[in-house]
Amino acid sequence: MAQFLSFRGLRYNTEKVELSRVLCPPYDVIKGAARDELLAKDAHNIVAIELAARYGENATPEQYAASAALLEQWTQEGLFLRDDASYYVYEQQFLVPGTSDSLRRRGVIGALTVEEFGSGVLPHEHTLSGPKADRLNLLRALRTNTSPIFGLVADEDGWIVRLIEDVILDHPVCAATDAEGITHTLWKVTDDEMVNAFEAAFENEAVLIADGHHRYETALNYFKETGSQADGASSVMMMCVSTSDAGLVVLPTHRVVKNVEEARLAGLVSRLSQLFEVTPTQHGPVELAAAIPSEGTGQIAMHLKGQSYLLSLKNGLRHLESMESGRSEAYNTLDVSLLHRLILENELGVGQQELAAGQHVLYTIDAEEAVRKVEAGEAGAAFLLRPTPVDQVQAVAASGDKMPQKSTYFYPKLMTGLVLRPLD
């Protein structure tokens, strides 16, 4: 079983920088000119280190070296300060998109010892080679974890939640508000008794990776490359959240399909009626997503130009024989799996190879954006999904399967820059 340990974090010196101006989202959601825009607000934004180039996967060895030199320079200039060995409690206060609901999600940041996926550490999504190569090159250059991986623990006895509630009675060490209005607050846990309590609470907990699969696999590969148990590379920075946390929110990631033959789209409604109850609806995008039934297997919304539909799989599990052999029932009954197999692959010709090539499907959590692209002629169809419940994510992982990439969107994302973890 992997160990979850305290570590000596590296944090911005808030006497020299305004924390809200120097944090950034995770590397994989920074698109287009976003890197430049963050640096225009403050040249000390962590994105200068987190993304070696505007598009990380295109960075050169010289750019990775420049990121490392910048981290060293800022540390020498006193922009970063090193803590004693600590755990960190991280709270995010946010509004759930599309609602007025205000929630708080809390977790513990520590160093998880890396191991092959198994009973101690479970993945739930597939990864791609490009991001892993970029993260490995950056880790080699920095020898520092720049952002925490997001993990889930069962915490069935509620011990971790109670420890967190004790910690947040004290004053936080820092807080910041991002561009979306989300408040990020950090507490440092250094008291020996409390550190020991956290270490004991996590001792027998398996960790399900919710977000950050590429970074975890990168950390594992780097550990194999360095080969020293005594080295800091034997663990990776992780934030663990209890699956019973009241602020745990999973948003759906919708699919927008493009570059598909017109003939396939023209007969799609008729062909789908053999598998689904197809109900035309005049709902707008947001209402359409909300109208997907909450019960039953295979409930999906579809938008073709000028018309929306609700799809409800006929006879439920009868269609499992059409799904992927060798996959678990937990995997094959996911809405996203049914969409990929029965509709994208079988009806639109977008199979696993086409998905991997990235030329046929766009992903978004914004239902309005998905429908708008179809209406603008940029895509042929949009498919809106329900959120995947956490227990389904756990069931797929426990079965040894991995969900299709971008099947879940745990909201909000963890910010990069609140605390870094040097390996040395």
Characterize the structure shown.
This protein is an alpha+beta fold. The chain folds into two domains: 4-249 and 410-422, no CATH class; 253-386, Conserved hypothetical protein from pyrococcus furiosus pfu- 392566-001, domain 2 (2-Layer Sandwich), CATH 3.30.1760. Helices cover 32% and strands 25% of the residues. It contains 16 helices and 20 strands. The strands form four sheets. Strands 1, 2, 3, 4, 5, 7, 8, 9, 10 and 11 form a ten-stranded mixed sheet that branches. Strands 14-16-15-18-13-17 form a six-stranded antiparallel sheet, sandwiched between helices. The chain is globular and about 65 Å long. The model has no long low-confidence stretch (mean pLDDT 93).
Features:
2 domains; single chain; alpha+beta; six-stranded antiparallel sheet; ten-stranded mixed sheet; 20 strands
Shape: globular
* Count of beta strands: 20
Domain unit count: 2
Oligomer: single chain
Query: What is the distance, rounded to the nearest whole angstrom, between the alpha carbons of the first and last residues?
Result: 24 Å
Number of helices: 16
Our estimate of the beta-strand percent is 25-35%
Low-confidence stretches: none
- Using the CA coordinates, give the radius of gyration: 22 Å
Helix content: 25-40%
Largest sheet data: 10 strands, mixed
Structural class: alpha+beta
Mean pLDDT, rounded to whole units? 93
List the helices and strands and how they pair.
Blueprint: E1 4-5, E2 7-12, H1 19-22, H2 34-41, H3 47-50, H4 61-76, E3 80-95, E4 102-113, E5 121-122, H5 129-142, E6 144-145, E7 149-153, H6 159-167, E8 174-177, E9 183-189, H7 192-201, E10 207-211, H8 213-226, E11 235-242, E12 249-251, E13 254-257, H9 262-266, H10 268-272, E14 276-281, H11 285-290, E15 299-304, E16 307-313, H12 329-332, H13 335-345, H14 352-357, E17 361-364, H15 367-375, E18 381-384, H16 390-398, E19 409-411, E20 421-422
Parallel strand pairs: 5-10, 7-11
Antiparallel strand pairs: 1-4, 2-3, 3-4, 3-9, 4-11, 6-20, 7-10, 8-9, 12-19, 13-17, 13-18, 14-16, 15-16, 15-18
Helix pairs in contact: 4-5, 5-8
